[in-house]
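Entry: glutathione transferase
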Amino acid sequence: MAGRLAVKAYLDLLSQPCRALLIFLKHNKIPHTVERIALRKGQQKTPEFTKLNPMQKVPVLDDNGFILTESDAILKYLATTYNVPDHWYPKLPEKRARVDEYTAWHHVNTRMHASTVFLQEVIFPMMGQPTNPAKFEKSLADLDGTLDMLENMFLKRQPFLCGDDISLADLLAVCELMQPLCSGRDILKDRPKLLSWRSRVQSALSDSFDEAHSVVYQIREKFTAKL
């Protein structure tokens, strides 16, 4: 948009929604700057950041003084404010509703279950807390249920989660499903339909996908080297 200043994104790329936001900004060539917030150092709890977002979470978007939190809201705002291809968040009500349907489901399914596996297998041990085998097995079972639903409902008759082209739903989902890879665990390896979907998403996003996920690959190398 002419005369509009670059948006500022506050991100930690170990965060799945932060990666989704960075990919969207880069892929769609939306002018932006990035402020890194290191969650592991507690930078989200500083007075300056807390003033910006009292919830002390990332990502946060600053669009010329308009402050927005929550990745779902941020991505939808950018998709409707900037001149990006319609397939990301379609204007047609029925197609847009499909994206909203997935993103409403996403938070307590794909995001919650993939995150729990990552926390129990990577973060807790890093903090000196041993993984509870029973809880971990339940987390894997819960995640399997979510993967079944992705295959049998969302990808039942279409190449992407909400239709024939990539949308915000695919972007949010793929970043979550990449997270367990930090431990070397590819949760999609025995699921051909989801593997094909991930390949389509990666291909659609080109270089921005691997750039944003470089931190995941680095952690995987360190984690698997210890095994």
